[in-house]
Structure formats: C-alpha cells, structure tokens
Design brief:
Layout (H helix, E strand, L loop, with lengths): L1 E6 L5 E6 L5 H7 L19 E4 L12 H7 L9 E3 L12 E4 L6
This protein binds FE2/S2 (inorganic) cluster.
Length: 106
C-alpha cells in the first residue's frame, strides 16, 4: 500500500492508501475521491482522469508515452505537469505522491 494525496481544485485534500499495482486513477475511484471521472475506465481514450502532478515528482515517475501526451492535449487546461492518472502505476517509489485535479474534466 502506498499513500497518495489527491487535492481538488477547491483545495480539499484526500490522502489514501492505494494498493501497489493499481493506477492513481483506480485509487481515486475506489476511494470515491471527486474530480477524476475516468470515463473510459483506464483505456487512455478519454482524458477525464487528468491530474496535475506535484512538480517535485515529475522526475520520479516514468515519462508519458506519445499516446498519453496526445490525449493530454485534449484534456481541460493541460499544463507541463499534466498526466493521465490511469497511466501512473502505484508502487513504493510513489509513497507520498500528490496530484491535483483540474477545475473540470473535458
Ligand atoms: S481513464 Fe480514460 S484516459 Fe484515463
């Protein structure tokens, strides 16, 4: 289990334990955390699991593949720290990861 913190655009913070091997998106859905819709269920086809990754984590998580980058372009207000949370696999290395959800999902 790994602690992940989700912060909404309204600055509400949720810290939960997520089972390793699940995605950051699945951790949010399983814990009823608002702000991540995940309409396609993790198939990288919707961009409604878009999150902003806290800057200090950007070097510690695997880089986004081209298909993810293309999909992020369709997300609501993408930034340079944007990721699709369905592509972030939870592991011990992500202990303490903090992501913020955008004001809306596209
Ligand atoms: S859940 Fe659809 S792209 Fe992540």
């Amino acid at each position: 289990m790994t602690k992940i913190t989700y912060i909404t655009h309204e600055d509400k913070s949720y810290t939960v334990e997520v089972q390793n091997g699940l995605t950051v998106m699945e951790g949010a859905v399983q814990n009823d955390i608002p702000g991540i819709d995940a309409d396609c269920g993790g198939g990288m086809a919707c961009a409604t699991c878009h999150v902003y990754v806290e800057e200090k984590w950007l070097d510690k998580i695997p880089k986004a593949e081209e298909a993810e980058v293309d999909m992020i372009d369709m997300a609501y207000e993408p930034k340079k720290n944007s990721r699709l949370s369905c592509q972030l696999i939870v592991s011990d290395e992500l202990e303490g990861l903090t992501v913020t959800t955008p004001a809306q999902q596209s």
